[in-house]
């Protein structure tokens, strides 16, 4: 009954027509999921007027890092992105990052770790990458936003989305592909009703992942060697963001309650005891070790994803596009904000208020697109005396300008650019009209 | 993270941008779901070369039945179907059904119950409706197939789908719309991993519904006043069809385990205690009484469907289309089967076997499209002596015929009709070629 079939379309002939029961576990490969993400990426890339460039900085002799660098180069090129691998010494890594930060032709930076023996030093290096080029989403600000469920960088304008760390986001994308996210529900709540166990609570993947899933509405059992924590947005997901609660539950208590089990245990020896799984659970492994025994898990799971590496690389490109978009958006919004202030200036010069533009200026200041400039904002406008022909004309132009300013913030970059000419014409005409009136 | 957004598309501006948390319970109306089903129905209707006609038989003074009859008339007409309401006396109902059964211009029959004081007599009336016109899916054969998870009427040809009873099917369609059916999984297994409580175990809706859902892979708690039964296809859904197990569980034990709660309690007084629901449960009510307190359930559910009546009518039209399709399919398959036998006859007359056609004949006999005819099947063919030019030509034609017969059963009605001419030409040529050889 599940599939929507046209009665007149050829009916699929099941191999066992009496019951039409196929394999009960659907195995989904990372390649399949990555393909669907890369198709989206390709579509979005076409909308850009330039070719995004990713710089990879390799400052170690680690074979894994090298392989990963080569693989990212290959994926970039295959998908229409520029990739520039810069092999540098440990001593030069800091300077290389700073150089790439300020290079306008670089849109994203990825640094291959580990570099230094001390993880703390690597973390310091991580924070050197400019926010607007941090394709891996590892900057403190991005991580903070993720935990706080803050999804935009420029509230209240909301033109720039906060970047999410690649591997946790890859797991999210896997769960979206598997339709665990229910798109019937409102964006931000689409895991409501789902219980998910995440085995791994590292700072790099496990904990951010648990937070992401809980912020999207799930009840998450986050498991590591120390025990189990529960991440949720509370009963009825009434809270804006997740909270963490300690519990005495054991892993074996979590399994029977979990719709989804996500594993990331870096150990060849570790295998999930599939007999404890809820019948029909969805199983996803992001560890490079196989945390599920393939044949065994297929006896119990409804869906099994054995690895997600290729999805992570696709997500990296997606993040790179987001960075490009954010950059273009910032430029466009800054320009718009300046224009709004200019509109206010023209009007206030003649003692008139233009509310829609003023609203944009206020928001732009809050979003960080414009500096506070108290003199402009302080001007108190007052209506002109009614009656004259010029007054009528001015009123008409003012209405046009108000309308334009109430529309502009809702437009996308291209549409905003197209309105530029109209805005210039209006401001000029208005200035003239004011001057006539005042004569 | 859940929605797939193009980075360059205008970003949706959440009303509360810090967290973008909308209402946590999505209320979905039957109208919305019915619309999407009726759109499918409209598409399928276009493929038919005639206008299906539904006959409604009203043999009671029941106000509800009258209203329902009027509503079905309205829905039929609005959606491009003919509807003929026949008001008859109780004494004439039997004859009226039999008349409609044999009337070639009638494609579906719906009888409005109750008619007689005894439910047994109404059940007898129900079974009078011809299988191929039973739009409500209440014939014993359909009900049997549903419980047995037999999805076709003409196994092993599998051209005619078995009809499902309207209200249980409407609930299935609701759950499909709500994406509880996961289309990532194989058809027939798409509820694997889902736990569903159905409160109502009537023969008309509750029990068939529990069976349908379990046959599709769910674990179903079927609840009525006598207690709880568990319907499943067993651990790992390894069985072809559901089994029923008794349990000592109480309703309150089922709630916390259930992803979905479906209610059909015919009582104004009955309300589900929403505090017992699993947080984020999906709640669907098919009773004409509201089994959930609206404001209360929205505090706990992720999705709430307050009623399904309009979906049931849409499903009725869908069933009517299926009946039309089955009728056309039967005609086409019968014709094909006769042609296959003719091909065998032509060949066997000359002592040659045509395996693909023979396979079709065997299947058609098993599916009931053709009668056994032992003399034809008993003919043992043998290859012709090789060498002559005529032999080569005959071989070529035989290969063509074999190919055609291996393709024909996979084609849809229209494609089968198109191949008719080719088949006639081939048989004629083959007969001639055989005769030349034999001279």
TrEMBL record, chains A, B:
Belongs to the tetrahydrofolate dehydrogenase/cyclohydrolase family. Pfam families: THF_DHG_CYH, THF_DHG_CYH_C. It is found in: Cytoplasm; Nucleus. The lineage of its organism: Eukaryota, Fungi, Dikarya, Ascomycota, Pezizomycotina. Coiled coil: none annotated. GO terms for biological process: folic acid-containing compound biosynthetic process; one-carbon metabolic process; purine nucleobase biosynthetic process; purine nucleotide biosynthetic process. Keywords: Cytoplasm, NAD, Nucleus, One-carbon metabolism, Oxidoreductase, Purine biosynthesis. It comes from Mollisia scopiformis (Conifer needle endophyte fungus). It is an enzyme of class 1 (oxidoreductase). Residues 31-136 form the Tetrahydrofolate dehydrogenase/cyclohydrolase catalytic domain. SUPFAM superfamilies: Aminoacid dehydrogenase-like, N-terminal domain (SSF53223), NAD(P)-binding Rossmann-fold domains (SSF51735). Catalyzes oxidation of cytoplasmic one-carbon units for purine biosynthesis. This is Methylenetetrahydrofolate dehydrogenase [NAD(+)]. It comes from the Eukaryota. InterPro entries: Aminoacid_DH-like_N_sf, m-THF_DH_NAD-bd, NAD(P)-bd_dom_sf, THF_DH/CycHdrlase, THF_DH/CycHdrlase_cat_dom, THF_DH/CycHdrlase_NAD-bd_dom. Residues 1-21 are annotated as: Disordered. The keyword Oxidoreductase applies.
